[in-house]
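Notes from hallway chat w/ T.B., transcribed later so I don't forget. T.B. wanted the structure written out for a chain they're using in a teaching module, and asked if we could keep both sequence and structure tokens in one place. Agreed to drop them here.
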Amino acid sequence: MPHYYFDIRDGTALAADEEGLSLTNQRAAEIEAALSLADTAKDLAPSASGRDLAIEVRDANGLIFRAAFLFGTARPSG
């Protein structure tokens, strides 16, 4: 079973996943990344808009994909 690592990138900071998870395939890793990203994003302070938040998924050979949460506003506040 493939082993995937889920590194969290918050702006320029990177929190590397040292343990990872064994999952059946890449699709399962995509779902895990999306759920983890949503869980991480819900804990951000309201003033965090404009920050980059992503989960970079890798295996023993390196980066496979990146799931990102995009913050933005339709119009300036004020």
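Follow-up for T.B.: The chain has a mean pLDDT of 87. Might be a good example for the class.
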